[in-house]
Amino acid sequence: MNQTLQAVIFDLDGVITDTAEYHFQAWKAIAEELNIPFTREFNEHLKGVSRIDSLKLLLGQANPPRAYSAAEMDELADRKNKLYVELIAGITPADLLPGIDVFLSELREAGIKTGIASASKNAPAVLRSLGVTSRFDTVVDVTRLKNNKPDPEIFVTAAASLGVEPGACIGVEDAVSGIDAIKAAGMFAVAIGSGSQFPKADAVLPSTAELNYRELAQRFAETRR
Ligand code: BG6
Ligand code: MG
């Protein structure tokens, strides 16, 4: 195949900045109010999942089960988002995760395109607060998509708007649903987290501090020969 690396497409929450923690805190507040148990382990299933689908998963944990009307669900989802928006209000460029600033510079220097494939409607605001909007060549508009991760649509859309084949891209994710989406798109998948969590990833790094252009480009090339 001999395809060279042309683009790196990033998830946002938990990859560029630690907003995954704020999503957790906001959902935990809603869960406590509803008397639904909410653990960090369960929260892993919500990563990469849209707001309304996350709420459905959370309400599915209620014991005894209880039915919610569409209006009640909308109100809960809105309230979670308000809590989340309050939590992200203080984000500054200092909240970039370790290694991200340098990695983005390495990619720019090497002429590799960059994109954001986040399920979050708050992504553009978070990128602005971090001061990194101009460092990405595309930010997928999630409101225009039909399918959520693990469907590949968001990664395929990012590659198309960069004018690059999915097979020439690396995707970076901290969620299992995100790694599944990257693999379904035909990209090289880099997971941030622990190896046992991500059996399908092509590379697993314990932290964003380990992101290194030369090493990843080499590993990418080995799989594309
Ligand atoms: C993803 C997060 O990036 O965005 C999920 O991993 C979140 O936890 C989803 O539910 C949607 O985000 P938002 O900001 O539109 O509610
Ligand atoms: Mg994420």
TrEMBL record:
Reactions mediated catalytically: beta-D-glucose 1-phosphate = beta-D-glucose 6-phosphate
Cofactor: Mg(2+)
Species of origin: Paenibacillus oralis
Enzyme Commission designation: 5.4.2.6
GO MF annotation list: beta-phosphoglucomutase activity; magnesium ion binding
A Gene Ontology biological process term: carbohydrate metabolic process
UniProt protein name: Beta-phosphoglucomutase
Listed NCBIfam families: bPGM, HAD-SF-IA-v3, PGMB-YQAB-SF
Pfam family, any one: Hydrolase
Cofactor binding, per record: Binds 2 magnesium ions per subunit.
Residues under site feature: Important for catalytic activity and assists the phosphoryl transfer reaction to Asp8 by balancing charge and orienting the reacting groups: 118, 149
Positions contributing to Mg(2+) binding: 11, 13, 173-174
Family affiliation: Belongs to the HAD-like hydrolase superfamily. CbbY/CbbZ/Gph/YieH family.
PANTHER family linked: 6-PHOSPHOGLUCONATE PHOSPHATASE, HEXITOL PHOSPHATASE B
Encoding gene, per UniProt annotation: pgmB
Keywords: Carbohydrate metabolism, Isomerase, Magnesium, Metal-binding, Phosphoprotein
Lineage, uppermost ranks: Bacteria, Bacillati, Bacillota, Bacilli, Bacillales
